[in-house]
């Protein structure tokens, strides 16, 4: 966010957009907004983030809180304009306090996940990366790769089964 604010960095904004757009859309849809309307609001919100980046102050708010507040305000504006009752406040993610042990554990888990992903076949790793890291639907993966839908689903299923097996000791309850 600071690169967007200070340098108008388009690549940083693209990463910001990729991270927040699906989360804001989910928040809007959980509060009762339809998918198409949520998409429109997401576009408005992210455009506002770009234009109002100079107003972002990390001392006053985290990036996520700032973006979600813009989204909430836009949602309230639309509800008022349409004469509908205001949507209920939806709980957003609140990051836990920084616990050094938890941070170290998370870093170790991430390393194990990266290693397990590296052990997948290249075909499985590609579709899993597109689906879960790229937030693409199976149809979007089909359009990008030209693979049949059944092949995509099979590769994801087999890859996830292998990941589950390799990471089963990671989370002991």
Q: Brief description of this entry?
A:
This protein has 173 residues and is mainly α. It has 8 helices and no strands.
What does this structure look like?
GO terms for molecular function: DNA binding; sigma factor activity. Residues 16-84, 116-165 form the RNA polymerase sigma-70 region domain. InterPro entries: RNA_pol_sigma-70-like, RNA_pol_sigma-70_dom, RNA_pol_sigma70_r2, RNA_pol_sigma70_r4, RNA_pol_sigma_r2, RNA_pol_sigma_r3/r4-like, WH-like_DNA-bd_sf. The chain has 173 residues and is mainly alpha-helical. The protein folds into two domains: 2-82, RNA polymerase sigma factor, region 2, helix turn helix motif (Rna Polymerase Sigma Factor, Chain: A); 100-166, Winged helix-like DNA-binding domain superfamily/Winged helix DNA-binding domain (Arc Repressor Mutant, subunit A), CATH 1.10.10.10. It is 71% helix and 0% strand. The protein has eight helices and no strands. The protein has helices spanning 2-7, 10-30, 35-51, 63-82, 100-119, 122-133, 138-145, 149-166. Helix 3 packs across helix 4 (63-82) and helix 6 (122-133) crosses helix 8. The relative contact order is 0.08.
């Amino acid at each position: 966010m600071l690169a967007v604010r200070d340098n108008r960095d388009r690549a940083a904004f693209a990463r910001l957009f990729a991270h927040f757009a699906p989360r804001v859309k989910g928040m809007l849809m959980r509060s009762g907004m339809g998918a198409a309307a949520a998409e429109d609001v997401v576009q408005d919100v992210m455009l506002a983030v770009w234009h109002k980046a100079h107003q972002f102050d990390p001392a006053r708010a985290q990036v996520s809180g700032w973006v979600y507040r813009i989204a909430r305000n836009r949602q309230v504006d639309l509800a008022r304009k349409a004469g509908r009752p205001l949507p209920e406040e939806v709980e957003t993610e609140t990051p836990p306090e920084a616990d050094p042990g938890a941070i170290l554990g998370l870093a170790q888990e991430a390393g194990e996940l990266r290693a397990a992903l590296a052990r997948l076949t290249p075909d499985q790793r590609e579709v899993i990366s597109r689906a879960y890291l790229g937030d693409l639907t199976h149809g979007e993966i089909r359009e990008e790769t030209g693979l049949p839908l059944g092949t995509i689903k099979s590769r994801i299923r087999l890859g996830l089964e292998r990941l589950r097996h390799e990471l089963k000791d990671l989370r002991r309850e």
